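Re-run with default settings, no changes from the original entry. Doing this only to confirm the output is reproducible before filing.
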Amino acid sequence: MKKIALILAIVMVIGMLTGCGGGATKSDKLVVATSPDFPPFESLENGEVVGIEIDLLNIICEKMGKELVIEQMNFDSVLPGIQAGKFDLGASGISVTPEREKNVLFTDPYCLAAQAIVVTADSTITCKADLEGKTVSVQTGTTAESFCMDNGYTVSSFEANSDAQTALTTGKVDAWVIDDLTAADMVAVYNESNPGALVILDEAMTTEPYAFAFSMKSEALVNEINAILVELVKDGTVAEIFANNNAPYTQPQLG
């Protein structure tokens, strides 16, 4: 009986050791959850997920000696999946907010972005104040959605930004609130076929930092990736990635 008890104890210890930190983080892979409908951060190109964050994570993985594995899903499934430990990290143009920091860990921000207001060319909306009493479209689970709801706007939420855009172009809503870099990309593409149809207002809805998200149990992984990420911001690599994706870059203040 003592031998059996000893064997069981050893098995339990081994199980605990191999289970710590999540399986994916102990392997040669880094599993990333993302919603590839957020250009220039993530988008699909010939069935492959590409974009700023993918380029950045490939460099990080190279420095870590890991293979990047991408899992695609709707944006509102990314953070719950991270919290549940299904993936190593979330990379989907994720804004750092006090509410999110209660449930996930973040790296230091790698860029600053703004939530832009997009309207049709014939709209009477020229600034943020003009949105009073209007309906805005947003993507589900985004800070655009939470900000607009928290500030009393009438909101129509959609799983994909392409659907939020369609709601604007078909007259179902009065404005569309979305990350400024993604707005610039999507509006440019739409206006190629519909010259001057959509306009991005000069006044932003709000500004916010972007970072990568992790489960609360992944502090060691966060520290490891953060050390690499901060250096990539400092040495200009992140700025170069933005430039290669034809996107303006605003560097966050580094601690």
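The longest strand covers residues 111-120. The chain is about 40% helix and 25% strand.
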